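Reply to dn_fold:

You asked what the input looked like. This is it:
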Amino acid sequence: MTQETESLLSVLDSVFAVIDKARDAYTPQLTPREVGTIVSVSTGIAMVSGLPGVGFEELVSFPGDALGIAFNVDEDEIGVVLLGDYWDLHAGDEVVRTGRVMDVAVGDGLLGRIIDPLGQPIDDGGPVASTSRLPIERPAAPIMDRSPVTVPLQTGLKVIDALIPIGRGQRELILGDRQTGKTAIAIDAILNQNGKDVVCIYCSIGQRASAVAKSVALLRQHGALDYTVVVVAEGNDPAGLIYIAPYAATSIAEHFMEAGRDVLIVYDDLTQHAQAYREISLLLRRPPGREAFPGDIFYIHSRMLERATHLRKELGDGSLTALPIIETEAEDISAYIPTNLISITDGQIYLSPSLFELGVLPAVDVGKSVSRVGGEAQRAAYRAVAGDLKLAYAQFEELESFSRFGARLDENTRKSIEHGRRIRACLKQPESSPVSVTAQIVLLIALTAGLFDAVPLDQMKAAESAMSAAGIPPDLRARLDSAQKLSDADRDSILQIARKSLSEFLSAPQAKP
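and this is what came back:
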């Protein structure tokens, strides 16, 4: 070792000794309590001065334990979004920094509970049992932490599971005009997770209290509330609460996903969320843009929906599947917010008012609906019939439109139309009546083979019931329930059973409707 090196090491040793001495002698100084003053209060917004150290989205405290989030951090004043009743706040009141961001309680203690976006219970179950909290705003999982979507999330709805499949970790948008059954599809998907070890989060955003009560009653009636967390921001709540509701629900869902569990989250609906953010932004004087929404309206939804994913096995193999709901006006899916969400999500389920009026429920427009991921996660038995079924249904819709002009149709065209009518009738399904995987596959195979073409349209439901009740051997049922590819022998066995049950149904005297 040279003399120069020894000298350098000696200097470094003395520097480290000084650092160690200073570290040992250091006594942490408590940050002085930083207090500001309310300058003005408007609808859900407070302008505050005198908090020079406040950070973006930091929680601040007002008199009466009211909370707010610092949203605009300007040079002279801070725009704060209020998260509760603001009627008792006045100009001149004190505002105190909390030094933390907005967070929410998470954990198994929330299952079966109904809470607000602040994590406070709004049911009769007493305090929420939780020892952990997570920030409501969290970065999405990086690409390298994600795995492909390979496992289906069965909704129990024939038209979705067969033609627009959803995978665990996917984001599938549900959109349509008012009163077309959007919430019903989401609730049915939650009901179908009973016994499948999937945790569900239902986030009601800006809905009427009566609508929320109806949904909760339905979940409770079918035993789905036991594995569901309901997060509610009602329509008459401040815009700040409505704005943070889906973020709080997503953090609750992420806690279960990071514990290695499969989670389904429903946002009902993001139209109200966008309107709440628009209200907040305009009150804070952020400039509006296209259709009077602020320019960052895309970002508030994208950063939330990007958190839905399927994690790698090394990280627990958990998944978070998102079903955001959006409301369209006059069937305009090219409006600003719908196009934003269509570009963020991995597909959409479009509900048609025309089909709804015709009594085709669920009113899913197969032509305008798509799943960009679910086909990869769909069971092999579904894939064997889904392609032919979708093609036959699309041909039927075109031919049906053509036949309305009174054109003379050839025999093959008439057969295609009659077959298509049976497909439409078979895809109809009552609300809150999920169909098992085995029953769906049997019905779809029989439908694709044209076995229902001999059944009168008004007796389709009775024929379906007769077929689904047919005795499938336990070994064949086990193969249908698994992800195995359907063999030709299994397909022939299903067709044989289906033909027999349909033959018995058609030969028996039928009750007139």
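The chain has three domains: 35-100, 105-378, 381-507.
Hope that clears it up.
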